[in-house]
Automatic annotation (TrEMBL):
Protein name listed in UniProt: Recombination protein RecR
InterPro entries, per database record: DNA_Rcmb_RecR (IPR000093), Rcmb_RecR (IPR023627), TOPRIM_dom (IPR006171)
Species annotation: Candidatus Lloydbacteria bacterium RIFCSPLOWO2_01_FULL_50_20
Gene Ontology molecular function: any one: zinc ion binding
Similarity comment: family membership: Belongs to the RecR family.
Name of encoding gene: recR
Signal sequence coordinates: none
Record flagged with keyword Protein transport: no
Superkingdom of source: Bacteria
Length: 205
């Protein structure tokens, strides 16, 4: 395969990018100058070295030091409300909630959603790590908020997670809530504005 097609096929693996868009990316790169390409390559190479996955909530964060591992700034912030754990699908949802400034508890990032009829749920989302975290922090956590989008697959994911965590929640007297219906159907959390997120959070049940 020639470089143009090869690169296009790599871009087509990106989330939400189809084959037509991936070819547009390649043509866009062909038009840019050498300095842009050099900077782009440098940043991509640096990404794995400078960004780390939080050992607790599993979000990606920029490391202050070169060594791997450790907790992100949110998890290690002693000022956060440790009685609340919000479970989100992806980093960009967490970012949207943080930007809205309406939530001051901790998070857990599932890292995906469950396709309906998925036979191996544990391969699609971090359900095992979530259960471990709940057990480990059961003394602190009083409420688990399932913050999934209002789409069939997201609602399916929330339902699955709820069923999995109920035994631990009941044993440790935790409440399990979901965001209120301030979110309109089909909306991704990451595209919701601050007021909508606040309303959904206040309306949780
Ligand atoms: Zn974290």
């Amino acid at each position: 395969m020639d470089p143009l097609n090869k690169l296009a096929s790599l871009f087509a693996e990106f989330p939400g990018i189809g084959s037509r868009q991936s070819r547009r990316f390649v043509h866009y790169l062909l038009k840019r100058d050498k300095a842009y390409i050099t900077e782009l390559l440098r940043l991509i190479e640096e990404l794995k070295e400078s960004v780390s996955e939080c050992s607790r909530c599993h979000r990606y964060f920029t490391k202050k030091h070169r060594e791997a591992g450790g907790e992100c700034a949110i998890c290690s912030d002693k000022g956060r409300d440790r009685t609340m754990l919000m479970v989100v699908e992806k980093d960009s949802d967490l970012d949207a909630i943080e930007r809205s400034g309406t939530y001051h508890g901790l998070y857990f990032v599932l890292g995906g959603i469950l396709p309906i009829l998925e036979k191996h749920p544990e391969s699609k989302i971090r359900i095992g790590a979530l259960l471990t975290l709940l057990e480990k922090e059961s003394i602190n956590i009083q409420e688990v908020i399932l913050a999934c989008a209002v789409t069939p697959e997201s609602e399916h994911t929330a339902e699955y997670v709820r069923n999995e965590i109920v035994p631990i929640a009941e044993a440790h007297l935790m409440t399990v809530t979901t965001l209120g219906r301030g979110l309109s159907t089909g909306t991704e959390l990451e595209y919701s504005d601050a007021d909508t997120l606040r309303y959904a959070l206040e309306g949780r049940k």
